[in-house]
Each structure stands twice: as C-alpha cells, then as structure tokens.
Amino acid sequence: MEKLILKKIYEKIELGEKVAMTTLTSICGSTPGRKGAFMAIFEDGSTYGTIGGGKLEYEVIKKSLEYIEKCENTEFTYKIDDKGELDTECGGEIKGFIKIFVPSHKLIIAGAGHIALHLHKLSSMINLHTVVIDEREELVNKEHFCYANELIVGKADEVLKQYNINKNTYIVIVGSNHKNDTLVLESVINSDAGYIGMIGSKGKVSHILKGLIEKGISRDQIQKVYAPIGIDIASEKPEEIALGILSEIALIKNNGSLNHMKDIKNIEY
C-alpha cells in the first residue's frame, strides 16, 4: 500500500499538480492511527491511503488542503478526547507532519540560437527548470548552455510528442526556420502547456497559423499561441527579446493568464 501511495504522489506531481503527504510522527495513548501511517491528499480534495479515518482524518485533510494553497509544510497536534479539538472518547494525543510537494515549473526552449542562449540564462535566475532541444549537436552542449537542466539533441517536434507536458510547462519556439517551427507548434498545440509562444514576424506567424487551420486545427486552439512572442520592448537585440519573452512567461506563471489577444487579433489567419 505504501508503494502505491508514493506512486500516486509521483503521478500527480508529473501531471503538474500539488500534493500533500501527511505522516503521523507521534502517538500517545489510545488513537485511531499508528505512528508512521501516511496518506496523500490531492488538490481536488481526493485522497489515497489513510491515517486512521474518522474526525482525525477529516481535520487533517482540511488542514492539508489549506497548506496546499499556501505551498507550505506544517506540523499538527491533536488532543483526542472529549475536551480536545476532535471531541472523541479515544483518549490520547497525535502529532504529524504535512509535506507539500510542488511540481517544478519548466521552460522548454525549442531551438538553440542566440535568443535561446540568453533566454536560458535569464530563466535560471527565476529557478525555472530549463530544457533546450535542437538537432544541432554542435550547439546543444554545456559549453553553450551551461545553465540548462536538460539538453536534448534531436528534432524538437519529435521529442515533444513524447515529452511529459503539463500546465506548469512553458514552451518557447525559437527555431531556425518556418518549417521546423510549424512542426514544433503542431506537435504541442493540443497539449496542456501553460504557455506556448512562437518567435517571428506577423507575416511568418500568419503563414504558419493559416497552415495549421488548413490542417484542421481549431481557432480556439490557435488562440492559445502567444505570437508574436513576448512583451514588446521595442528592441531587436537577442538579449532584450529574451527578456521580453521571460517577462511574458513570468506574468503567466504568477497570474495564470495574460491578455495577449491584442497581438494575435491583429494577425490575419
């Protein structure tokens, strides 16, 4: 059972969800749980495993959901008698610890050019788990991308079809040509990514989006794309374009949404 609980926790984290693991650390007297018992509590209030059931478990689940919201670990102590918080006749005291698992936010950069180089440096400053994908082996290495957490040599569209993408994944498409960028966008547009942005002029973006619509991609899906990418900071310098991209991603990460329609609505597709 314990292995299954840990497996469920891992699976939820991989889906980009926060999870609480509650463990009983001290038992005194007559209590419904046993020392070392643990359970998982998920964001939607569902659970896996048990620490003894009853009023104790109900109160611990409630506290765990509160601390999932705060993204903080905490300890708890409950008196288990008719004078304590749980108002039962067991008699005893129980202590425990709530550990909150928060999935890491991940930046995937499809392309290994100048903008990608500056972007990966900036992303490390805000603790994004950074992945760089490009088929050019001479570029995708620690010499160029020393701050990257993952370096993957291969065609980005093929890699991303197999990659675990969730709501905490931010995808930046900054490839070397229209064709590759189109394939990458097509491979991720139906994913759960929290952000999909693509570099390019309005002409390039319009051409690519029209092509995707002709392939049957819905306009609702197209509206998920942040293009032209990044906050417009009126610069063509790669390092400043990278800053604009990361600023846009930070807004999405911290606020959950961003009104980018003013950009994409000006593009005919």
What does this entry show, briefly?
The chain has 269 residues and is of the alpha/beta class.
Task: Lay out the secondary structure.
Blueprint: H1 2-14, E1 19-29, E2 38-42, E3 47-49, H2 54-70, E4 74-79, E5 92-101, E6 106-110, H3 114-125, E7 129-134, E8 150-153, H4 156-162, E9 169-173, H5 178-188, E10 195-198, H6 202-214, H7 219-222, E11 225-226, H8 238-255, H9 261-264
Parallel strand pairs: 6-7, 6-9, 7-8, 9-10, 10-11
Antiparallel strand pairs: 1-2, 1-5, 2-3, 4-5
How many structural domains can be distinguished in the coordinates? 2
> What is the straight-line distance between the termini?
53 Å
Oligomer: single chain
Name given to the CATH architecture of the largest domain? 3-Layer(aba) Sandwich
Shape: elongated
Strand order of the largest sheet: 8-7-6-9-10-11
The name CATH uses for the topology of the largest domain is Rossmann fold
What is the average of the pLDDT values? 88
Radius of gyration: 24 Å
Number of helices: 9
**What level of helicity do the residues show?**
25-40%
Q: How would you characterize the overall build of this protein?
A:
With 269 residues, this protein is of the alpha/beta class. It is built from 9 helices and 11 strands. Strand 1 (19-29) and strand 2 (38-42) form a beta hairpin.
Question: How would you describe this structure in keywords?
Answer:
9 helices, 37% helix, single chain, 269 residues, elongated
